[in-house]
Amino acid sequence: MKYILALDQGTTSSRAILFDRSGQPLSIAQKEFRQYYPQPGWVEHDAAEIWQTQLETARAVLEKQGISAAEVAAIGITNQRETAVLWDKRSGRPVCPAIVWQCRRTAPYCDSLKEQGLENMFREKTGLPIDAYFSATKIRWVLQNVPEAAKLAESGNLLFGTVDTWLIWNLTGGQVHATDYSNASRTMLFNIHTLEWDAEVLELLGIPESILPEVRPSSGLFGHSLPALFGAAIPIAGAAGDQQAALFGQACFSPGAAKNTYGTGCFLLMNTGGEPVSSQNGLITTIAWGLDGRVTYALEGSVFVAGAAIQWLRDGLGLISSAAETEGLCRSVADNCGVYLVPAFVGLGAPYWDPYARGVLTGLTRGANRAHIVRAAVESMAYQTCDVLRAMEQDAGIPLAELRADGGAAANAFLLQFQADITGVPVLRPSTLETTALGAAYLAGLAVGYWSDFAEIRRNWQVAEAFSPAISKEEAAGLEAGWRHAVRQAQMRD
Ligand code: ADP
């Protein structure tokens, strides 16, 4: 067996990637699918199109590499998290469009749950704040608003799944209805301590347990793909939500190990080991993965506007014509000239949690030019990341030893150097930036013995570039003080 096939089902596209034993991606196929915005704040996908595009990319990648299904040791799945799919068990037909994680349609209901004082209960049981992102209130919405769904639920013919579950169900021809611990922990229905669907939460939301998938280890045999799909049956042996998969793909196996994905926003996860850590700083407690009979937990925080600030420089201000230009511009000036950008375009997340904060560009003098403004935008990604990391260190009580970076903006070496400078820890960029798909491949490959153990994966994980802190603690503290001052200005209201 030469390969592992990773299915990376994202929010805007489905991708399939073939990996070899060294963890190198050999071949990639990708297909975008449609986004539906039926009302302001609503986001939907066609679940059938998700399955179709995923199947097509899987077939395409095998064809491109010229290999047969018999040469694939296992399939690993990683997916957009929280998105809710509900379908008829008998026909496999979705009862309505998939409600995407971004969809805000259940925000008013979430507000009413908060008004009932239920926030602590949800946080304690599920590790999550009450929010429309998570699957729970989306499922309730379907049961209450799609008559067919309620009828099917009553007759025991309705199934719910996050996208991993939907793919596994289709791959196995409807034989397996299962999810993994990491995806279950994003539903706001799963008790992360008892590792069971929480009866009290289900009752409160009016969701029957019969529609929920069986929760299984992230690394283990889920079932086999129908032989007709790829020409031979392939074991489906791994599944994890995209951010957790990236943490695994970055080989962050020990408590305190952390990764940051620098994309449109940033997603930070820190492995906290075998015990869930509850956050005092508004971070999310989540399951990283279940493996070898144990569950590993993580703290998660996100930055709403990261690479999006670079897009704003390009599309909103016209200061640059491509994101790649920013690195040279940052290096063209000796320092920030006192300029800070706080891109609080949609408020501020952890650790500030201020939905009313708004963006500010501050510290301008006559000496400030275009490059300083661009540099302030790039630096804002690092400052915001640093804020979340400090919160994680405090919550977990574990000092960060290093930060592993991936995502599109991790291409910017100036950014990663500045991140190391300001955070005071080394920032490492691995040779493979496809960490999400790689994590799914590793989970599947471990289950079927394609990789033997963590040690082998650790050896596969190679640093392409390491950025070590290169400024003094005093200088870093001075810069951070300037950032805090700017954040206060972003939070000012009259
Ligand atoms: P996503 O998966 O969230 O769509 P990606 O991981 O593809 O995002 O990263 C794209 C984001 O990174 C964009 O917002 C873009 O502005 C930013 N970006 C890409 N290249 C660079 C760069 N060299 N420097 C700074 N930002 C960059």
Descriptive account of the structure:
The longest helix has 27 residues, at 370-396. The chain has helices at residues 47-65, 107-115, 119-126, 135-145, 147-154, 163-171, 181-184, 199-205, 227-230, 242-249, 307-316, 325-331, 370-396, 413-423, 435-447, 454-460, 473-490; strands at 3-9, 13-19, 25-32, 44-45, 72-79, 85-88, 98-99, 158-161, 178-180, 190-191, 196-197, 214-216, 219-224, 235-241, 258-262, 266-273, 284-291, 294-303, 340-342, 360-362, 403-406, 427-430, 463-467. Helix 10 packs across helix 15 and helix 12 (325-331) packs across helix 13. It has 17 helices and 23 strands. The strands form 7 sheets. A 7-stranded mixed β-sheet has the order 17-18-16-15-21-22-23. It has a domain at 3-243: ATPase, nucleotide binding domain (Nucleotidyltransferase, domain 5, 2-Layer Sandwich), CATH 3.30.420. By secondary structure, the protein is α+β, with helices and mostly antiparallel strands. The protein is 36% helix and 23% strand.
